[in-house]
Amino acid sequence: MLPDSQPSKQAVPYRLQAVALAAFVIVAPHSALAQSGTDIASQDAADNPVTAEDAQGTRSIDFEADELAYDSEADVVTASGNVVLRSEDRSVRADKVTWNREGGTILATGNVRFVDERGNQLYTESVELTDTFETGAMEELLLALRAGGRLAARSGERGEDGTVILKDAAYSACVVQNADGCDKKPSWRITADRVTYDPEQNRIRFKGAMLELFGARILPLPGLAVRSDGSATSGFLVPDLRFSESNGIEISGSYYMRFAENKDLTLGAYLYSQANPMVSAEWRHLTDKGAYQVTGYATHSSRISDFTGVATSEADPRGYLFTNGRFQFSPEWSLTGSIRLASDRTFLRRYDISRDDRLRSTINLERIDRDSYFSVSGWATQTLRLDADQGQVPLALPIIDYRRRLADPVFGGTVELHANSLSIVRSEGQDTQRAFAGARWDMRRLTGMGQVVTLTGLVRGDVYHTDETGLTSTAIYRGNPGWETRGVALGAVDVEWPFVGEAFGGTQVFKPRIQLVASPSIKNLAIPNEDARAIDLEDSNLFALNRFPGYDRLEDGVRLTYGFDWELFRPGWRIKSTIGQSYRFDKDSTILPDGTGLSERVSDFVGRTEVRFRDFVKFTHRFRLDKDNLAIRRNEFDATVGNRRTYAEIGYLRLNRDISTVEDLQDREELRVAARIAFAEYWSVFGAGVFNLTDREEDPSFNSDGFEPIRTRLGVAYQDDCLEFGATWRRDFATAGDAERGDTFQLFFSLRNLGVR
């Protein structure tokens, strides 16, 4: 133990420093600190910090410092030079720490950084700590929250309830340094006379709050409160301002209510200069089994008849309901579902909620394990097309699907059993019920010369029941009324032979492929076609065993498909190309309409080319060429050039199939463009457009001359690390009921970590 006659302030060598502190702790029974319990007299204090524990063993403080001095008269310990104090998950770094044993306080000064158990960091020149390691009075402080926000204040103190009270404070979620480490002024901040930070509730409350944008005081924010952990808190959201041709000037606002960590409610109100007000609500709930949400809109307004285009004489209740969710009952069992319902066909478009032309509601109960899959599902669709008949839209319920893969190989291959049933009903159309069961066998082998050979066998038995077939306008979709049965058998051999080598300064892979598929004659036209209508030869189904998209139609006969894949890999570059064709050995198929590319013995050519250069260039081209004259029957490409902030996109599709007898396969031509140009570091201008290029020759139902804008959009935006705002203009060129063609203007505003948008 150090004698009382030792000078009151003297630096002690490392070893003696440890002894002095240990002795000091022992003789301080009135302090909250007691003996460390370890003999550290023979160890270097810089490598083995001293530990002090309170009498109850509930709190310990580890010290590290370059120098340590003890004033025996004042009973004060002073640590200086790179001082580090640690207590459980809290820590303090400072130039100097003074511990008053009598008062039980610790004063840290000089470049102080205090880190609490939540990861929040406090920077100040001076802070008082109790011997239980709680902060006290502070001057000129900065509190950096782990979630990203920052609080600066002239002074602060810790209340008896553990809250931190700051005076003359400012809050912002903006970074204070740019990427080069230079100081940066925040885009926005909240100034307040008084700020209360409650670390237990992770809540920051402001008194006398004012929003400053680029240094200008623009908006008072009474009663403002935010969460320090970055999560949401109850309060009003920043309003939206919009002008549209259908509704005039629109002002919308929302109030967010957080009931718990796992559930919240947002209530919205919409005011229009040319329409009645509208309200909305969104409920979200996370449970121990899954999550769901429910969103609804409601108003009372007049609308235009879907078919006559004449406004109704009386106002009607109008609205939209959307709910979806997923629940995982066990590792195997899950339930997913969604409901989408609108009061009428133009509500969503008029109020700019959605531009979908159909709403699908679904339910699906699934069980998935390593070797089996089971599903009971159903779906219903509400059409929003003005010229569509809702009575012809099917309701599918139930859809039952079961698959099982046998654990043991059969003749060296894998066997998968499959059973399926489907019931489709229409209020004013054909009804169909279907059930089938089958098995598929696959064996894949690699030969000594490098060929990949796959053998496949499939057998299946189908049962159908159909009535009201006369209500289906396309004859080849109807099938025979009443009961029908069908047997299906198929065998296939598929050979791929990849070659790898160097080329063009990189590595290339050339893979020829040939496939032979054989099937006896199948009763296709006797069976209704509900799920295999949109047939079209393309690169994705060229080597498919059945090139129809569903189960109701299958290609029969014998066909040979051939083609190749080619890939080139260079630093930063990837080029991939596919092309192929098929040949049918028997007569032309009667179930494939002319123009699909598959109706004759020799099919059209189909292919796909992809080009990638880092993340800067992405290009995809898909095509189908007529086998007789190489005319382009399908021409589709999508290209993107640029980065996340500055880019240009273009997409084009033309289907030139000359099919006029089947409504699902009519010709189309469309152009899509979009671009964004960034400037002045945080600003950008952007635009997009969708154009219908279909003319009367491609589709007689169109009145367009070959260039008809559908939608265009232009805008300007500012976006930095914590602020986003801007304005957009959109023009719709088509009127649908009471969703009128015309211009829409919108202002948007978003502040990071402030709970607004």
From TrEMBL:
Keywords: Cell outer membrane, Membrane, Signal. One of its GO terms (biological process) is lipopolysaccharide transport. Residues 318-683 form the LptD C-terminal domain. The keyword RNA-binding does not apply. Pfam families: LptD, LptD_N. The keyword Membrane applies. Component of the lipopolysaccharide transport and assembly complex. Involved in the assembly of lipopolysaccharide (LPS) at the surface of the outer membrane. This is LPS-assembly protein LptD. It comes from Altererythrobacter epoxidivorans. The lineage of its organism: Bacteria, Pseudomonadati, Pseudomonadota, Alphaproteobacteria, Sphingomonadales. The gene is lptD.
